[in-house]
Write a structure and sequence with these properties.
Order of helices and strands: HHEHEHH
Radius of gyration: 29 Å
Number of domains: 1
Helix content: 55-70%
Distance between the termini: 62 Å
Strand order of the largest sheet: 1-2
CATH class: Mainly Alpha
Shape: elongated
CATH topology: Non-ribosomal Peptide Synthetase Peptidyl Carrier Protein, Chain A
Length: about 140
């Protein structure tokens, strides 16, 4: 069984998948950073200083011992206040759209660089068999 496992792991497709997952995770962090540190602040600037992380709806009461700001989503969340953070959701949707767009462009570029192979031309044996069949049809 150990030999079978070794064969399974050493196959190219498994290794390619592992490399893809690792690179994908790192790439996801880059896109998240791009979204949170560049794009969303720019969108906030364009919309007049809007900070999307401040958009939330409190669903419950704030604990009596809470001393932080009532507009600080992260602090309220850490305090255990039930909330719907739709601003964070908007940020994550933008993050997903950017990631999907970049992956689309990468796949499109890869398809241009490596076009699908043309249909294989028939072999000599196939051509000879076809000629033979056509000759048999003649009277």
């Amino acid at each position: 069984m150990l030999q079978e496992f070794k064969t399974f792991i050493s196959r190219g497709s498994v290794l390619d998948l592992a490399v893809g997952v690792i690179i994908g995770a790192a790439f996801g962090k880059i896109v998240t950073s791009l979204t949170e540190s560049v794009i969303m602040p720019f969108v906030g600037w364009v919309t007049g200083g809007t900070d999307f992380t401040k958009y939330f709806v409190r669903l419950g009461d704030v604990p009596a011992d809470y001393t932080g700001s009532l507009t600080d989503y992260a602090a309220l969340k850490a305090a255990g206040v039930p909330m719907i953070g739709y601003g964070d959701f908007i940020t994550q949707v933008v993050n997903f759209v950017i990631l999907a767009w970049i992956i689309f462009l990468i796949v499109k570029m890869a398809n241009k660089l490596n076009p699908p192979p043309d249909a294989a031309a028939p072999s000599e044996v196939d051509l000879l068999a076809e000629i033979r069949d056509e000759l048999k049809k003649r009277p």
